[in-house]
Every structure is written in C-alpha cells, then in structure tokens.
Amino acid sequence: MRVGLFFNGDLESSADVAGAILSADYGKRGVEFVHGRANALHGSPDIAISIGGDGTFLMTSKTIMGLGVPLYGINTGRLGFLASGEAAAAVRDVEKILDGDYEISPKVPLKGEVIRGGSVICTVRAFNEIMIVKNFVSRPIALSAWVDDEKLYDFLADGIIVSTPAGSTAYALSSGGPVVHPGVRCAAVIPICPHSLFPRPIIVPDSAEIKIKLESSPYGAVLSGDGQDNIEMLSGDEVTISYDKKMGIGVIRLGGGSYFGVLRNKLNWS
C-alpha cells in the first residue's frame, strides 16, 4: 500500500509528525510512503494523510479530489474540525489505517462557476464554502440571490457565503450561520453583515442550484473557495453554485467520540 503524506511545510510540528510516521516500524504491513506539500500530488497514493490544520486538510482535499483516494487528517494546527486526528496518536492511527480498521465518510464539494457575458470564465470547488466578499474596505456590495431560478432576495452587504455542513463551523459560523450536522444533506446561504434586517441565513436542499449575482460594486468583489482561490468579480457577474458529486472524496474516520463531543470540545460548550 502506498500512503501519501501531505503536510504544511510552514509548521515545524507538521514536519515532526511526518518524521515520526516515516521512521516508525510497521512490521510486515508492506507500506510505502510518498510525501510533500499539500498543494501537489506526490506519486499515486492509495491513502492520503494530511498533516497540519484544517487549511492543510482542505488543500489536500482539492489535490486528490475525484481520484478515489480516501483522506485522513492529523491536526497540528488550531481547532481541527476536519483534521480530527491527534498528533500524539499519529503512528497508532496510521497502523489502524494500514490494517483497514476505519470507516469512510463521503464529502462532496461545492462547484462554483463564474459567468461573465454569458460565458463561464472560471470554476472553483470547495469543501467548506464558496464566498463573495467586497473588494474595498468601506463599501458594501449589491447582491441578489436565487435558488433553483426563484428569487430569494436582493440586499446590500459585505458579501455572502454558501456553505456545506462541514463548513458550517468555519467562516459561516462567525457570520451568524447555523451549525449543521454532517448527516444533513443541504447547503447554507448566509449574507455577511447585511445592511438590512431582512436577508437572513437559509438552509436549502443539496439538490438546489444557487445563483448569486453581483448587481453593483464600483470596486468589484472577490470570489473565494475555501479561502484558497481569489477570483476578481465585476458588476454584472454571476456565480452558479451546486454540489459536484463526481469530485467527492472519502474522509477516513477511526471511531471513538461523536460529532457533538467534537463541538463541545472545540467550541468550549459546557
């Protein structure tokens, strides 16, 4: 079995964990490691392991999406909602994975297509969220939102987020969105600091197509997928957002704990 280690080279703790994994004795399990930074594919791994924070996990997810390679995340960052493994247990966790002692949780990315003048000019994919934010610190942007070709609302705001359940504990949460259990098949539409009381966050089915139009912004706006893409948008541009089931990944779960336990631990709920 070939295992790919994808790590954040800027974190010394990530290099330490990678070193511990590479130097461990795995007996007769027949493992071969390939390794390097998270933004490039190294060899042809059968299993991928992300070593870093949730940002490294998301970057690795994009690197391997659509390849049918399952992914496990070891957290050496801060919260670690997605990278659920503990650094101190890294070698033991790798042994479990090599023994096949794990479950797979499917994760499907959002696909956003930016349309300008009737043509698609770029496509982004994101496992947490796709967001549009203002490109100038003091000016709100005028947006309109549609769900399955039906108008949702027009509003002025600092931006808008379309989030997956996995992304509900990221930027969406700090923008007033709900925490969404990963078993709920949906997307959340969340205005960022709207200049009105009326446009509120809304949950829509995962089958829905969401369209966001940048109606007016003298300074344009920026579209981002998981904080890793920065696409300049102009007034009149549209973004259509839907789930791309062909590009999903399987996230490795080793058992133990629960989602609500993770929330209590990471968010300091009593």
Could you walk me through the main structural features you see in this protein, from its secondary elements to its overall organization?
This protein has 270 residues and is an alpha+beta fold. It has 2 domains: 125 residues, Rossmann fold (3-Layer(aba) Sandwich); 137 residues, Probable inorganic polyphosphate/atp-NAD kinase, domain 2 (Tumour Suppressor Smad4), CATH 2.60.200.30. The strands form 4 sheets. It has a 6-stranded antiparallel β-sheet, with no helix packed on it. A 6-stranded antiparallel β-sheet has the order 14-13-12-9-16-17, with no helix packed on it. It is elongated.
Throw out a few tags for this protein.
5 helices; about 40% strand; six-stranded antiparallel beta sheet; 19 strands; alpha+beta
Please tally the β strands and state the result. 19
| Distance separating the two termini | 42 Å
* Biggest sheet overview: 6 strands, antiparallel
Number of helices: 5
Q: Name the poorly predicted regions.
A: none
Radius of gyration: 20 Å
- Which sequence of SSEs, written as H and E, runs from N to C? EHEEHEEHEEEEEEEHEEEEEEEH
Determine the fraction of residues in helical runs and give it as a percent range. Answer: 10-25%
Domains (count): 2
Name of the CATH class of the largest domain: Mainly Beta
Looking at this structure, what is the CATH superfamily of the largest domain? Probable inorganic polyphosphate/atp-NAD kinase, domain 2
**CATH architecture field of the largest domain:** Sandwich
| Sequence of strands across the biggest β-sheet | 8-7-18-15-10-11
* Chain-averaged pLDDT: 92
Beta strand %? 35-45%
